[in-house]
Structures are given as structure tokens and as C-alpha cells.
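User: My collaborator sent over this chain with a note saying "see what the structure looks like." That's all I know about it. Can you take a look?
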Amino acid sequence: MPQPCPASERLKNCKIISHRGEYNNSEILENTIAAFDKALSCGIWGVEFDVRWTRDLQPVVFHDMDCQRLFGSELVIQQVTFAQLQKAFPVIPLLAEVIQKFGKKMHLMVEIKKEVYPEPAYQKRILRDLFSTLEPEKDYHFLALHPEMFHAVDFLPPSTFLPIARLNLRELSAMSIHENFGGIAGHYSLLTDEMISKHKKHGQQVGTGYVGSKNCLFRELNRGVDWIFSNNASEIQSLVHSLSDAR
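Assistant: Without extra context I'll predict from the sequence alone. Here is the result:
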């Protein structure tokens, strides 16, 4: 439905996040350097991506457990070394490469996927070292559909963590407030105005996805949403830029 254009200040502070980068999964694949390069070139504020581990405990940026959906291969990320993965699908980047290339240039929204951590202390040290050049909250946040995965980065302040809600919205909302997390994220159809207001009163921020139209963007900004996750982030960002310039 038609929505009023947000106030200038809300447009100015609008934080668009490209979900897995700017991709079409043909010429440009999701969660790749090319997808993040395009997001950066479009002036998008942040990028969301997923982290998984190879058999030799190298963190890579990839969404699925296996390579079936993107590559038609049954190769499972956690069952191969990074050298084997790189030989088969060189487009899959190391987390270190993404941080080095895009850290401090875009805000990094890092989703930890649920999987077994065979050497949690060692893997935690790797993540600590990789993010040591960046400032938590200012430069990056960690997201998780399963908040127990935040144990992998429990060296960070809880305000760096954002649980992603599905149908367990009330449970994760209560947890976020109780644990002093940075806020909560979820689909715009799940996060009600009441829920957004509740988190705001506790000094937390809210992110909604997946915004794909002007009216949806206007509604979310008018509701006070802080982070706008989108699969059409370049188009949404272009709209924000044009509206801001017009004013």
C-alpha cells in the first residue's frame, strides 16, 4: 500500500544491507568477492554473508552445507579441505579475504551457520584474530538463526550479537533483551510495531528483511527500523540516494 515518504533524517540515516551481496547466481554468484564488489560500487552501507568451516578449519564465506544448489555438486564444505574446495570452486572466498577487502568499507553482517565446531577454542582464536583490526558494532555484527552459535564469538560484547527471528520471535526477542544483545532481526511481516518499540525502549536496534520495493522501504523507515536487509539492495540504495539528493 502507498506509504508517506520518510523524514529527511530517516532517509539520511538509512542503512541498507545487501543480502549475500549483489548477485543473480548466473554471472555473479552470492557470497562472492564479485557480489560484494558490486555492493560496494553501488554505495550500499553494509553486506550480509554467511560463514562455514572446511575440514582443515578454514572459515569460508558460503551459505549452504553443500554445493548442490549453486554448483550441482554433492561436495560438503565441512568434509573437504580449503585446498580441495578452492580447486573445485575457486569463487568461494576465505573469510579472511572478505574482511581484508571490505572491512571498514562496508558494515559486515556476519551470519554464523549452525554446525559442529570440532575445535571450538582454536576456531574462536581464528575468528578473534580475523576481526582484530575491526571494531565490533561500528564495523560489524554477528547474526545467527540459532543464538547458541554466538558461543563461537563470546569474546565480543553481547551488543555485537543479533539473533534472527523466524516463528520464534517472542522467544528470541525476550532473549535479546535479557542478554543485552544489540537487537533483533527478522522478516518485516513478523516484527510488529509493538515489538520494534519494545526493543527501542531497551536501547536496541532492529533489522528487517527482505525489503524489495519503495513502499516497503518507506513503511519500514517510518516504523523506525534501523537496518534494511534486501535482495535488491542496489535498487533500494539508488532510490534512497535519489530521494536524498532531491531534498
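A starting point for your reply to your collaborator: The chain is about 35% helix and 20% strand.
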